[in-house]
């Protein structure tokens, strides 16, 4: 069990984590008090949720098998079963691979920092936080709205289904079925009275929690991507001041020359370590970005300029070390982002692949169902509701995957557009190596089969429209 | 570490290739080689099981000395065995094909095994023509630069060797089950048909209806197709084993790049020497990559014809067997046998495509792994070398058959799509003929 330490991504995503824990996912870490009794209680809650979900899913499936005679019923029930397959898959997937999720959440626990860039870092961190909150609100509203809409549409229209007339094989009669959210088989008679009420409440709980399971995990994934994108924005922004830092004095006089107001001659020069900020809480207030730099720098004799005079770029040894430390911060931060994105891909790639597989089949069937819409009625509303929901889920992660690709490929743009020609040799080499790395954009792949981007969404949408057009023609 | 590998016969001396002295019966002890003694691994383990199988079927001669008695004996054994089991059966199938020309159903029944055997002929020819070069390839697996240098790399290689062996064994088992179901199917499906027919079609100079002739022909068919199938699969898994080596070595290289500087202690007194050593490490990685590319080129050169032929013919085979499956009732044993056969053929190609895809993905990761090493504090020379390396690794390493078919999952998808469309066309034509 991990020690409860609220920092990094866990602190930022605490509302998400609490909601995920509340909906019954097997996320048993991140509690202040993890004693045996409470832990068992939480585990019990998760298991009970799992049992309920599987039971109801089983009832749906039995209903599918029982009603497979009629083509319309078969199509409708298959769509329902596939829809909830996807929710169950996400639930079970998280339970099985929760270690990878914990690892991704813990990756940003100890970011490095540099006094020059603290302000920019904080600004983008706040921006990421704001976007993550906003996304969470949207997801909550969307999930609740879908659950409420589903419940209300149950009470609209007749609750019947057509079966073969037992007297005459060629005719069909409409037979009443229980007025419930999803068609399922129960071992008791749920037509009216108390059993009906209880079954209805159970189904409302089931629908709401199933939607919550799927959507909350997707929003966790997207929040990670938002965070990674904002970090990349931060890195792009500080590229320019970094170049100015290392600019040679004879071609360009940087305004930031007064950054290098040297402290007393006897001060030691140390490079800032990665966890400097967390070790020196009291120094936080001392640094404002463009003021004094003081601090302690490690005197690693990496380059000898003679007796500490002006170096080959016109910078003093102190300035050279400052540039070196800034570059090191930039590179380490970028590597950290790359590690974060790799961990996100490892944790969630397979879930996305499974999602796309079920969605593809479900959307094909929905296209078929859509050809049978005759007017504005309950049937049309349900089909369009399913369609919009499924497409919205795919759009949700495709748009953030696309943003990641865009951000990571624009880092090279930023590297090129800063004044690299004014920089020192070391800075130019740094820009070169960064450009080599950033030529290939960072992307999330669905277990090596496809890339998550808006192209994927466009191809899914295009396929649905094509099937719909073809099926309409065939009718 | 105990010697778990079956020793091989010849010893060759090259600059980087390690000497290993042993006999085929495993009497003498192998010499240990220089390098980190903790991570000792014989990389030929990737393909030793396959080589033993191919030896047994006479397709590939072991390394005997020139003109020794053993060599001549093996040649005689190979000729007799291959001739009896393979060539005769092939001739009978060709004759059958000529005999059944014009009748679509009979032709498809005759053709699907015929095509597999033709491709097998080509593979046999490749192994026999390039025998010496294949042996050099196998021995070059043990070059010093391919050896693991830390625990992670050792684990990766060991795990992949294990996987290669399991895949070979599973595949051979699947082949045996397929042929077993073929043997059994004429007896189980015979209700309604006049008598028991032979499981596979073939042309024999005698009539196969009477008792002794039928049993003989049946036994011969089963024996030859089983032996042929096993031999074919051992050759295929040898090739996929070679590709697995490339993929495993790329993983090792990725790890070596990421942990480049970790072997060196940060001692501020010895900065100069440390810089030189770190630079040397990077250069070693560059040479490693060059070796991997060289190995991949050699593998591609030796087996390019086999792989191309397998892809082209595989499409036809899958199409024919799907057509055969559509002719028989779904629950019959023959349907099941055909489906197993189809799965075996697809698996052959899938193995190559999957590991070729792995090679592409891992070589894509090289730029990132190089970036992840601690380059900021190093010398200018190191950074320039790193830049050259990263420029080269922008282009991933793709394995091509005949310069056109890339070994990747895209090619596999294209194969399945083509087979399906040819099958649809064939079905249409057949329905029209029937109607």
UniProtKB/TrEMBL annotation, chain A:
- Name the UniProt key words of this record, in alphabetical order: Behavior, Cell membrane, Glycoprotein, Membrane, Olfaction, Receptor, Sensory transduction, Transducer, Transmembrane, Transmembrane helix
This protein's record includes keyword Transmembrane: yes
Against Pfam families, the record matches this protein to: 7tm_6
Membrane-spanning residues: 43-66, 78-96, 135-156, 204-229, 337-367, 379-400, 449-470
Compartments where found: Cell membrane
One GO BP annotation of this record: signal transduction
Bilayer topology annotation: Multi-pass membrane protein
A GO term for molecular function? odorant binding
List the GO terms this entry assigns under cellular component, sorted alphabetically: plasma membrane
Q: By its UniProt entry, which InterPro entries does this protein fall under?
A: 7tm6_olfct_rcpt
| Highest taxon of source | Eukaryota
Similarity field: Belongs to the insect chemoreceptor superfamily. Heteromeric odorant receptor channel (TC 1.A.69) family. Orco subfamily.
- Protein name, as recorded: Odorant receptor
Q: From what organism does this protein derive?
A: Zophobas morio
């Amino acid at each position: 069990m991990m020690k409860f330490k609220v920092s990094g991504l866990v602190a930022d995503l605490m509302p998400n984590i609490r909601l995920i824990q509340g909906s019954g996912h097997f996320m048993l870490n991140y509690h202040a008090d993890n004693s045996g009794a409470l832990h068992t209680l939480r585990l019990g809650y998760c298991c009970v949720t799992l049992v309920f979900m599987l039971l109801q899913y089983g009832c749906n499936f039995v209903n599918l098998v029982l009603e497979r005679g009629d083509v319309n019923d078969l199509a409708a029930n298959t769509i329902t079963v596939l829809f909830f397959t996807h929710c169950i898959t996400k639930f079970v997937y998280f339970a099985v691979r929760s270690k990878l999720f914990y690892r991704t959440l813990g990756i940003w626990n100890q970011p490095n920092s540099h006094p020059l860039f603290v302000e920019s870092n904080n600004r983008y961190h706040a921006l990421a936080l704001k976007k993550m909150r906003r996304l969470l609100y949207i997801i909550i509203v969307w999930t609740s709205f879908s659950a409420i809409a589903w419940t209300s549409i149950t009470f609209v229209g007749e609750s019947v289904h057509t079966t073969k007339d037992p007297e005459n094989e060629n005719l069909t009669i409409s037979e009443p079925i229980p007025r419930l959210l999803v068609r399922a088989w129960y071992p008791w008679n749920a037509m009216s009275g108390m059993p009906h009420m209880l079954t209805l409440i159970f189904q409302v709980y089931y629908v709401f929690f199933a939607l919550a399971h799927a959507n909350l995990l997707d929003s966790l994934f997207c929040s990670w991507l938002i965070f990674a994108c904002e970090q990349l924005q931060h890195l792009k922004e500080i590229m320019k001041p970094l170049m100015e830092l290392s600019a040679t004095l004879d071609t360009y006089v940087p305004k930031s020359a007064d950054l290098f107001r040297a402290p007393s001659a006897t001060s030691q020069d140390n490079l800032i370590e990665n966890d400097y900020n967390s070790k020196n809480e009291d120094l936080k207030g001392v640094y404002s970005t463009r003021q004094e730099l003081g601090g302690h720098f490690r005197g690693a004799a990496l380059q000898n300029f003679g007796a500490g005079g002006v170096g080959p770029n016109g910078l003093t040894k102190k300035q050279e070390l400052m540039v070196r430390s800034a570059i090191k911060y930039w590179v380490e931060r970028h590597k950290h982002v790359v590690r974060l994105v790799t961990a996100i891909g490892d944790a969630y790639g397979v879930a996305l692949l499974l999602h796309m597989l079920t969605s593809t089949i479900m959307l094909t069937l929905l296209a078929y169902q859509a050809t049978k819409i005759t007017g504005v009625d309950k049937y049309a509303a349900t089909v369009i509701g399913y369609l919009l929901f499924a497409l919205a889920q795919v759009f949700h992660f495709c748009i953030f995957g696309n943003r990641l690709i865009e951000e990571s490929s624009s880092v090279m743009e930023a590297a090129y557009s800063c004044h690299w020609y004014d920089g020192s040799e070391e800075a130019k080499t740094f820009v070169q190596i960064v450009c080599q790395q950033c030529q290939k954009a960072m992307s999330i792949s669905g277990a090596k089969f496809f890339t998550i981007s808006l192209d994927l969404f466009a191809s899914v949408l295009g396929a649905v429209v094509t099937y719909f057009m073809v099926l309409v023609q065939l009718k | 570490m105990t010697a778990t590998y079956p020793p091989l016969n010849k010893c060759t001396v090259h600059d980087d290739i390690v000497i290993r002295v042993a006999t085929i019966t495993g009497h003498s002890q192998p010499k240990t080689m220089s390098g980190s003694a903790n991570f000792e691994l014989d990389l030929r383990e990737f393909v030793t099981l396959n080589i033993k199988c191919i030896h047994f079927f006479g397709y590939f001669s072991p390394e005997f000395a020139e003109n020794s008695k053993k060599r001549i004996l093996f040649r005689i054994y190979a000729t007799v065995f291959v001739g009896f089991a393979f060539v005769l059966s092939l001739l009978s199938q060709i004759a059958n094909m000529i005999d059944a020309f014009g009748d679509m159903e009979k032709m498809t029944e005759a053709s699907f095994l015929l095509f597999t055997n033709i491709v097998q002929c080509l593979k046999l020819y490749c192994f026999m023509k390039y025998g010496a070069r294949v042996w050099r390839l196998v021995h070059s697996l043990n070059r010093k630069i391919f050896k693991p240098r830390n625990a992670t790399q050792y684990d990766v290689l060991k795990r992949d060797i294990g996987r290669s062996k399991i895949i070979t064994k599973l595949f051979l088992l699947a082949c045996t089950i397929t042929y077993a179901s073929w043997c059994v199917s004429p007896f189980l499906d015979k209700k309604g048909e006049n008598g028991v027919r032979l499981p596979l079609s073939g042309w024999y100079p005698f009539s196969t209806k009477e008792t002794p002739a039928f049993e003989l022909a049946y036994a011969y068919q089963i024996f030859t197709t089983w032996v042929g199938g096993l031999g074919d699969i051992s050759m295929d898994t040898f090739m996929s084993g070679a590709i697995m080596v490339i993929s495993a070595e790329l993983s090792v290289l990725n790890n070596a790049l990421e942990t480049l500087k970790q072997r060196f202690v940060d001692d501020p007194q010895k900065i100069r020497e440390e810089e030189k050593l770190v630079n040397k490490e990077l250069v070693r990685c560059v040479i490693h990559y060059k070796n991997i590319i060289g190995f991949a080129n050699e593998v591609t050169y030796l087996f390019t014809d086999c792989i191309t032929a397998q892809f082209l013919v595989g499409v036809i085979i899958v199409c024919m067997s799907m057509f055969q499956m559509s002719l028989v009732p779904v629950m019959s044993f023959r349907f099941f046998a055909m489906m197993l056969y189809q799965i075996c053929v697809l698996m052959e190609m899938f193995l190559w495509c999957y590991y070729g895809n792995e090679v592409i993905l891992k070589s894509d990761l090289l730029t990132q792994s190089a970036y992840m090493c601690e380059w900021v504090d190093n010398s200018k020379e190191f950074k320039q070398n790193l830049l050259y390396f990263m420029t080269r690794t922008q282009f991933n390493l793709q394995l091509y058959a005949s310069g056109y078919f890339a070994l990747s999952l895209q090619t596999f998808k294209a194969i399945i799509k083509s087979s399906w469309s040819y099958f649809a066309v064939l079905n249409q034509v057949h329905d029209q003929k029937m109607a």
